[in-house]
Amino acid sequence: MVFGVKLDFCLSISLRSVTLVFLSCFGTLSCVFFLSVCTFGVL
Prior knowledge:
Elements: H1 2-42
């Protein structure tokens, strides 16, 4: 029982970190895309 709870806890933490990494990567990519569109739009 305790092992299952610990496993769930580890899984939720890893899922959360994966989601955070995915969100930060997605945010960075969208920022770069937005900046390049603005730059090329001005040029």
